[in-house]
Amino acid sequence: MISIIITVFNRQNTVEAAIESCLSQNFSEYEILIIDDGSTDQSADKIKKYLGKNVKYFYQENQGAAAAKNKGVHEANYEYVTFLDSDDIYFSENTLRNIFVLLKKEPDFICTKNILIRKSDSDIIADNKQISSDVDFYKFMLSSPLNYAGHNPYVFKKTLFLQAGGFDVNSKWGDALIFWRRFFKLNPKFAIVTEPGYIYNQIDNNSVSRKRSPEYYSTALDVMLRCYSENHKDIHLFKVEKSWHLIFMLYAIKSKSLRKVIKMAMLLCSGRFYFIPSAIRYLLETKVMK
């Protein structure tokens, strides 16, 4: 019924917990596909003891998280696929069963409203208040480059995931950013789990997505600009381009690149600049730039 794809790169200290959280589920119609993206530590040795009929291991030379996830989807045997990062775990033993209940409605996509974020000093439940049963996901995605479709665990119908082209292997940051806009342009039928389903581990700060250097902001800006270029027509149709331009400006400033700051300032002041106040209001109300 569900193929769980765990991508691994040098996660010898956390990968076992990720696998165990799958094996402890009160649900048996799943397979686990572990995609090792060229680990050089002892991750493979930690994984070996779990291999069997429903747990399979694939090794590839390091190509990045997007390529590893895409490979997992291609290797998946079930109709639905979901992803579990090798340093995260499922919220409870009922996570997959809660998803299975919604799969009876044959959706193309499932997300959750809530996620538990684990920090070194506390656990926080994050609720995405913009996600509801009547949300227009495509318009929501185009309202800001920083909008995401609820929280993990995300579940996709395999055929539609592949139709959208999979995750962007050319992105060193935000490999799903471009994918989300392509996926929801296909107008998928969706369902939402209200209970938390995922524990997002922020105790270990080795993740590239958690490092906030000028290089990080420069790389992120480049990806957002590619996404903007691809969706330019619809972004302007929904009159939300200034939300994008404001975020571009912020990231350009934080990249400490004078060239990018000048370029983004020119973009912000061009076109329908009178939408800037409404864009500021949207960004403040949604706290998308927090």
TrEMBL record:
<dbReference type="Pfam" id="PF00535">
    <property type="entry name" value="Glycos_transf_2"/>
</dbReference>
<feature type="domain" description="Glycosyltransferase 2-like">
    <location>
        <begin position="3"/>
        <end position="120"/>
    </location>
</feature>
<dbReference type="InterPro" id="IPR001173">
    <property type="entry name" value="Glyco_trans_2-like"/>
</dbReference>
<dbReference type="GO" id="GO:0016757">
    <property type="term" value="F:glycosyltransferase activity"/>
</dbReference>
<keyword id="KW-0328">Glycosyltransferase</keyword>
<keyword id="KW-0808">Transferase</keyword>
<protein>
    <submittedName>
        <fullName>Glycosyltransferase family A protein</fullName>
        <ecNumber>2.4.-.-</ecNumber>
    </submittedName>
</protein>
<dbReference type="InterPro" id="IPR029044">
    <property type="entry name" value="Nucleotide-diphossugar_trans"/>
</dbReference>
<dbReference type="InterPro" id="IPR050834">
    <property type="entry name" value="Glycosyltransf_2"/>
</dbReference>
